[in-house]
Write a structure and sequence with these properties.
Structural class: mainly alpha
Distance between the termini: 24 Å
Strand order of the largest sheet: 1-2
Number of domains: 1
Helix content: 55-70%
Strand content: under 5%
Radius of gyration: 24 Å
Length: 451
C-alpha cells in the first residue's frame, strides 16, 4: 500500500492522487460508521426498525444492506472530492485492478440477471460490489482510518460474543433471524449481532484465526482473552464446520509457532509458565462447561444435523434432470425450484459453486469465479504474511454453505478484517528506510541533512 489517501487533490498532469495529505474527516468518519453497521447490524435488528432485509416481501430497496448504501455514497463522495470522478475511478482501479474487475463483472452480471429475471439481484450488490468498493477505497492509505477500523472490529466482535453467551444462558434471542418476519422457533442457537447462526460462526471463526496470526497491535494477553471469549461464543452458534476448521487450523498454526520458537531458543519463561497453567486448567474448565450444558447444543448438531449432510449429497441429483444446454446458460427457474423441493433441498443448496451453476449457468459461474479468485489474491498480497491462516479458513468455510452464491455480507467482513488486522508494517518501515538512506547519501556528499 504505497499510495496515499488524499483529501481534496488538485488536478495534476498525471491525474493521480496528491501525496502527503490525509483523508478528509467525512470519509474517515463515514468508513468507520459503515464498518460498524456492517459488523453490528443484522437482518433481525433491521426488521425491528421496519427494514425487511432478509425476506422476499417489501421494497426492493430494503434488500440491500445499509452499509452497502453508505459505501457507495462514500465512493461517490471521494470521486467528487477528486475533482474528476472518472479520473478517480481510473486511479483507484489502477492500484487495485482485481477489485475493479470484480466490481465490473458483478455489475455486468447484475444487468444480465435483471434482463433474464432471475434471482440474485441484491446478491450481486451486497456480495460482490460492496467488498470491491471497500478494497478500492482502502487502497488509499490513512493510518488513522485503519486504526479506527481495527477498534471497531474488536469492539463489535467482543459485543457480539458477549451477546451470544447471554442469549445462550437465558435461552432468549435478542435479534433472532427472521424470514419475512417469521422466526424459526425450534432453532435456539445464538444470533447475536451477525444474524444467522452460521454467518455468526463463519465470521467468528475467521476472527479467531485473525487474532492468532494477525492483530499485532494488541497485547498478547488481550489477544488470548479475546480468543477464549470468541471460541466460547463459537460454540453457542453451533457451526460444526467452523468449529472444526478453527480447531484444526488454529492448532496447526500454534504447533508451527511453538516449534519455531523452540528452534530459535526464544522461549519466554513467564509465557511458558502461563501456558502450562492454562493447559492444566483447561480440562477442568471443559468439564464444568459440559456439566452446565454448554456443549449440548453443539453435540446435538453433530449427532443430528437436520438433514444438512444429506442435502450435500442430494444437490448432485439435480444435475440428472438438467440438459447440458440449460446448465451452460442457466435452466428455467420454475424447474429448478420444483426439483429442489422434490429432492428435499428446501433450506438451500449448500455449496456456492453448485448453487451458482444450477441457478445462473456455467458461463456466469466461471466469470464470477475467475474475478473472485483474482480479487482474493489481490487482498492477500496487501496484507502481512500471516494472512494465509484466515484466508485458508475462509476458503474452506465458504464451500460449506451457499455463502457467496447468495446475498451475504460475509465477504465484505472478511475483506475488512484482512486489510485492517493484517495491515503490513513494511509501508511505514520502507519509507523510514528510504529516508534514512537519503540522509546518509546527503551526508556523504556534504549536503545539509533533510528535514
Amino acid at each position: 500500500m504505497a499510495a496515499t489517501w488524499a483529501a481534496v487533490p488538485a488536478a495534476s498532469g498525471h491525474g493521480g492522487v496528491a501525496s502527503g495529505r490525509s483523508v478528509d474527516r467525512v470519509t474517515r468518519f463515514g468508513v468507520t460508521v459503515a464498518v460498524a453497521l456492517l459488523f453490528g447490524v443484522s437482518g433481525g435488528l433491521l426488521w425491528v426498525v421496519g427494514y425487511n432485509y432478509e425476506g422476499l416481501l417489501g421494497s426492493a430497496l430494503t434488500k440491500i444492506h445499509p452499509s452497502t448504501y453508505l459505501f457507495v455514497l462514500l465512493f461517490a463522495w471521494r470521486a467528487c472530492l477528486f475533482g474528476n470522478p472518472v479520473g478517480y475511478a481510473v486511479d483507484v482501479a489502477d492500484r487495485r485492478p482485481a477489485a475493479a474487475l470484480m466490481m465490473v463483472t458483478a455489475i455486468v452480471l447484475l444487468c444480465v440477471v435483471v434482463l433474464r429475471q432471475r434471482p440474485g439481484m441484491a446478491g450481486m450488490i451486497d456480495t460482490y460490489v460492496a467488498p470491491s468498493l471497500v478494497v478500492l477505497m482502502l487502497g488509499e492509505d490513512d493510518e488513522r482510518a485503519f486504526a479506527r477500523l481495527r477498534a471497531v472490529i474488536h469492539v463489535v466482535m467482543t459485543a457480539n460474543a458477549l451477546l451470544a453467551l447471554f442469549e445462550f444462558a437465558t435461552k432468549t434471542l435478542i435479534f433472532p433471524y427472521r424470514f419475512d418476519g417469521a422466526v424459526f422457533v425450534n432453532d435456539l442457537r445464538s444470533t447475536a449481532l451477525q444474524g444467522h447462526p452460521l454467518s455468526n460462526a463463519t465470521v467468528t471463526a475467521i476472527y479467531v484465526l485473525a487474532l492468532l496470526s494477525g492483530s499485532r497491535s494488541l497485547p498478547t494477553s488481550l489477544r488470548l482473552g479475546l480468543i477464549g471469549l470468541q471460541f466460547a461464543a463459537l460454540v453457542t452458534f453451533g457451526g460444526r464446520s467452523a468449529m472444526v476448521v478453527t480447531i484444526v487450523l488454529g492448532g496447526f498454526y500454534l504447533l508451527i509457532l511453538g516449534v519455531g520458537k523452540l528452534r530459535q531458543g526464544r522461549v519466554n519463561l513467564l509465557g511458558a509458565a502461563l501456558g502450562f497453567m492454562l493447559a492444566a486448567l483447561l480440562p477442568v474448565a471443559i468439564v464444568l462447561a459440559a456439566s452446565y450444558g454448554f456443549f449440548d447444543a453443539l453435540l446435538e448438531r453433530f449427532v443430528s444435523d437436520n438433514g444438512s449432510a444429506n442435502a450435500r449429497v442430494e444437490m448432485f441429483e439435480l444435475f440428472k434432470h438438467l440438459e447440458l444446454r440449460d446448465l451452460i446458460v442457466g435452466p428455467d427457474i420454475d424447474l429448478v425450484e420444483s426439483l429442489r423441493r422434490i429432492n428435499g433441498l428446501e433450506q438451500g443448496i449448500e455449496n456456492p459453486i453448485i448453487r451458482m451453476v444450477i441457478y445462473q449457468g456455467i458461463v456466469f459461474t466461471l466469470l464470477m469465479a475467475f474475478a473472485f479468485a483474482l480479487f482474493m489474491r489481490e487482498v492477500a498480497r496487501h496484507c502481512h504474511p500471516g494472512i494465509w491462516l484466515p484466508m485458508l479458513g475462509w476458503l474452506l468455510l465458504l464451500n460449506t454453505s451457499e455463502s457467496i452464491a447468495s446475498k451475504t455480507a460475509i465477504l465484505t467482513k472478511v475483506v475488512v478484517m484482512a486489510l485492517a488486522l493484517y495491515r503490513p508494517a513494511r509501508a511505514v518501515v520502507g519509507r523510514g528506510a528510504q529516508a534514512g538512506r537519503g540522509a546518509a547519501n546527503d551526508k556523504r556528499k556534504g549536503l545539509p541533512l533533510r528535514r
